[in-house]
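Lab notebook, bench 4. Still working through the backlog of constructs that have no structural model yet. Next entry is a single chain of 337 residues. Request: give me the structure tokens for it.
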Amino acid sequence: MPTDQPTPRRILVTGVGANPGFGLTRSLTRLGHQIVAADANPLAPGLLLPGVVPQVIPRADDPDYPDTMATLCRDLAVDAVVAGIENDLPPLLALRPRLDADGVRLWLPDNESVHDCIDKARFHQVLTQHGIPTPRIWRPEELDQVPAGTHLVVKPRRGHGAQNVHMVTARRHARLLCELVPEAIVQERVYGTEFTADCLVDRDGRASVILRRRDLVKAGLAAVSTTFEEAAVRDLVLKTLHAVKSEGLSCVQGFVTDGGAVTITELNVRIAGGFPLTEAAGADLVGQMVNGLFGLPVDHNRLTYRTGVFLTNYVETLAVGDVGELAHIAEAKGESP
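Model written out:
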């Protein structure tokens, strides 16, 4: 359900090579906004979307990232920046004073809240302190404490997009993987029905939550999903948002275990890759995010949704051809094709 006649904005979206940023770019474009599509990979698919202004930027850990982003926003008269990937969050937080001074909007929670979410060990600690069920975790040096027979997940402490995530059934395998996975943590593996909650928290703390079952997951992405409603899941998601002091867009993931218990596994401070299902089910997620981004009221009545709506996803070939044909991307990078 699109927002009626939105004021056109120029919005820079980062991470357009991954599903969240790519999908967000398409949704914002359909709403009539001018999108500066940014990614560190010159062949990121979002740079090839019709109507965008493609920009190749440094990686988030590159020392040139802050100056490049600030200069881009000034030179291209950007109204706001929205991160489509977790890696961009820390440098954007540090850049927030410069963006504010230039009149560029950035809608994120405070620094502590963001780091509580992108650091999985800190997230576990916050949830535990608030009595929110979440899988047990161990650091590599604590593997001797793992109960025998526990199935485990080895993942980066600050990872994203299911990269370097490994499922194992033995502590010895987890120990080996901890030497290979950067900043590894070991998490108890949970079995059951996996879900994602698409969330939007306004500046007064009111939250809207849209629940989606992840019926089939491939490489961390929901290939098949269905909207649903369950009070116990909704209540725990709301409690999680409150615990981390969430604001703006986020997505919460968890499981309804085989025994019927609800447990939370993570919260991403960005839009989810599967959010098109939320919009197909009637929730104006991106439109209301834009309202909040620019200081307008979020209409939570526009964030209701129909249950039982499904989405199937697949890998699409966007473009093939010679790299030399991508002159507009080369020009955006300041190089010859």
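Notes after review: The first strand starts at residue 10 and ends at 14. Confidence is low (pLDDT under 50) at residues 333-337. Flag for follow-up if needed.
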